[in-house]
Amino acid sequence: MWLTTLVRRHHEAVKFLLVGGICFVTTTVINYALKLTVLHDKPVTALAVGTIIATVLSYVLNREWSFRTRGGRERHHEAALFFSVSAIGIALNSLPLAVSRYVLMLHVPEVSRPVQEVADFVSGIVIGTLVAMCFRLWAFKRFVFPQPDVRPRVRVPRARKGPRSSVVRHESEVREAG
């Protein structure tokens, strides 16, 4: 039960990580779709485009789920801060790939194609995402959604009928009990 306690204590961070996982997959799919097609010679641009699209998705999911009880700002001000922080995050996400490609020269013809792809994945997708994620979590809680429990928690009452009800009784059980 230590895991349950840990999740309850850090519920915002857990939700943030789940949103991050969804956006990680989104970024990776878009990055490789672009990199293997129209942006073949521009891997940093492909990664930036994938990250920008995932950032829009991230705003919606973080605003409405991860940090739904946080706030303290008007929505337009909050969105402007979110996208400003995210722009810094996009730069932090792209920086390791740019260093790998253009400073360390880990690209074809300097290295083989498999080495280039592994270097791109590790530097752009793994290291870049980790650095940007740590920055975003800190900045979102500090600047974008600064005040906890500003918006009320909404509890959805559980339905008594349907497949998700806590007790499902069949008609025959009702007749036997009654």
From TrEMBL:
Pinpoint the GtrA/DPMS transmembrane domain residues. Answer: 15-145
Task: Name any one Pfam family assigned in the record.
Answer: GtrA_DPMS_TM
Q: How does it sit in the membrane?
A: Multi-pass membrane protein
Compartment list: Membrane
Q: Does the keyword Membrane apply?
A: yes
What are the alphabetically sorted keywords of the record? Membrane, Transmembrane, Transmembrane helix
Membership in a protein family: Belongs to the GtrA family.
Query: Transmembrane helix among the record's keywords?
Result: yes
Designated name of the protein: GtrA family protein
Origin: domain of life:
Bacteria
Give me the segments passing through the membrane.
12-32, 44-61, 81-99, 119-139
Taxonomic lineage of the native organism: Bacteria, Bacillati, Actinomycetota, Actinomycetes, Micromonosporales
